Amino acid sequence: MRNGNAEHGATTGRRRSSTSQPTNRSEHGGVRMIKFDSVTKRYPDGTVAVNDLSLTAPSGQITVFVGPSGCGKTTSLRMINRMIEPSGGTIWLDDQDTGKVPPATLRRGIGYVIQHAGLFPHRTILDNIITVPSLLGHNKKQARAKAMELMERVGLEARFAERYPAQLSGGQQQRVGVARALVADPPVMLMDEPFSAVDPVVREQLQQEFLRLQSELGKTIVFVTHDIDEAIKLGDQVAVLNVGGVLAQLASPAELLSHPANSFVAGFVGRDRGYRALGFATDTVPVRSETTVAVGATVAEGVRAAEDGWVLVVDSANSPQGWFNVDHGVHDGSMQITPAILNLGGTLATEGGTLRNTLDAALSSPSGRGVVVDEDGRFRGTVTAAEVVARIEARAAAGRYGAPAVSG
Ligand SMILES: Nc1ncnc2c1ncn2[C@@H]1O[C@H](COP(=O)(O)OP(=O)(O)OP(=O)(O)O)[C@@H](O)[C@H]1O
């Protein structure tokens, strides 16, 4: 049985980053909030890339810009550090008008991470990380020590320090990119599709570690992606942009899934949004008690205890081991039930977990009864898919999110 906690853990990991805010103080001083005030970008050829954008990226949180290709995500991001100058409107960093801060000064407090990491191929990893401190004439020994500490933080082994970028995998290079952006301890980080160039498995790892890192660092982050799943996973808030640089909706992931502002957002968020919204709903579905047998019980005992042909088998710590089926093919009732003859089933639901986790457990259980465990993995009871769906329907009726794409 797989414990469904991985997903649940990811969700709570992100929530932790937004609820227990670490103090976002750095050598650049203070907490940083980014505010777009009627910002427009019209390129010389007349293309309006960003149109009258007003939004706030709160301090210490991850704001994700998401939308289809060409909707102005990168342009919006680069206007924050003045790599692109707005044609109209103002971008504020706390109470500072960024248009009045010299770009070099501004960028010292803003880390920048891009796709493919943008590392210098002929410099070692360590030298890549300390590029900016070296340029600024900082103490080299201190910068190296900081770089080594950051390498550890982003999950890179110290032995990579003297390697060159081409000797690292794509995922490792992205970690170097993140370490380099963090070296000056900027309160603000701009990240432009930083995880897009790696395969899905590495990408998932990088996302998890990024959330963990952010829960420790509490930077103000603006993150660009074209991938709605990444936006929902990483964002404390998500700005959905439409072509022409128009803000279609700014909302928390849960709100976006439950109440898309218009058909464009609904279409972009996807047809399974109801199911995904369940990943944010932590309603408790009452569990039913269930007769279990212990590993080592006899087949006859298992058959007697079974309900609808299945009985749950637990170990001495009351931790579920799998389901025993009365039609398992063993005809000797005195034989012991061993793990080898159990159906391991699907995911386990955790008490107090999300409705999605609970529904997954019910749908993936061979007995049709989802197994619910407590935080320590001990068996608490079962729920059926029908019970979870009834709960979901009650939520939908109460208007707590859009109609779920789940049927009985
Ligand atoms: N220097 C430029 N001159 C003219 N038009 C530009 C320039 N840079 C970008 N654009 C246009 O502005 C619009 C927004 O581009 P931008 O790169 O910000 O979009 P994006 O949402 O980041 O796209 P993608 O996801 O494809 O990277 C696009 O129509 C693009 O073609």
TrEMBL record:
It comes from Nakamurella panacisegetis. PANTHER family: OSMOPROTECTANT IMPORT ATP-BINDING PROTEIN OSMV (PTHR43117:SF4). Its EC number is 7.6.2.9. Keywords: ATP-binding, Nucleotide-binding, Transport. The lineage of its organism: Bacteria, Bacillati, Actinomycetota, Actinomycetes, Nakamurellales. Pfam families: ABC_tran (PF00005). Residues 1-32 are annotated as: Disordered. SUPFAM superfamilies: P-loop containing nucleoside triphosphate hydrolases. This is ABC-type quaternary amine transporter.
